[in-house]
Amino acid sequence: MSERKDIIAGGKDDRPEDHEDDGPQIGVVEKTRTRTRRPSMYRVLLLNDDYTPMEFVVDILEQIFHKSRDEAVAVMLNVHQNGVGVCGVYSFDVAETKVAQVAAIARQHEHPLQCTMEKA
Predict the structure, then answer these.
(1) What is the spatial distance between Cα 114 and Cα 2, in angstroms, rounded to a whole number?
(2) Could you tell me if 95 and 16 are in contact, meaning their C-beta atoms sit under 8 angstroms apart?
(3) Nearest Cα residue to 114 out of 44, 59, 58
(4) Residues 95, 86: contact at Cβ < 8 Å?
(5) How does pLDDT run along the chain (120 residues), one tens digit per residue?
(6) Confidence (pTM)
(7) Residue 102, class by beta-carbon neighbours within 10 Å (0-12 exposed, 13-18 middle, 19+ buried)?
């Protein structure tokens, strides 16, 4: 978060007015604003290999990324034909978790499927 201070000149200060001066009182008022930023987003990518079965990749896309069967097949074909496919775009924590889940399931089934993430 970043903070910004606005300076407003020409206003009256907070001193009691029990004395008369020969001019207006000049003071500085500071106002602090807090701005929130949207979190950075990350693309989760599947990388092609020559050993992981296509059906396994489709199952991963359905289970972990909650893709429909048609969407999962489309992403799998993109991975197969282009070497890489986008599974989704998520906040850092969610993307990191999904990458770890894919790695764990692939390892459990003894497939070399690779999953990475990059800033969107």
Answers:
(1) 37
(2) no
(3) 44
(4) no
(5) 445 555 445 555 555 555 555 667 788 888 888 888 888 999 999 999 999 999 999 999 999 999 999 999 999 999 999 999 999 999 999 999 999 999 999 999 999 999 999 999
(6) 0.70
(7) buried
CA dihedral 103→104→107→113, nearest 10 degrees, is -20
Q: Which residues of 14-27 are buried (b: 16+ CB within 10 A; e: fewer)?
A: eeeeeeeeeeeeee
Task: Please report how the helices 92-108 and 54-63 are oriented relative to each other, as an axis angle in degrees rounded to 10.
Answer: 140
- Beta bridge partners, 27, equal 11
Q: Kindly state the greatest CA–CA separation across the chain.
A: 89
Which amino acid type is present at position 93? Answer: D
First-residue to last-residue Cα distance in the chain: 20
Tracing tokens 């000149």 back to the chain, one arrives at 9
Neighbours of 10 (CB within 10 A): 10
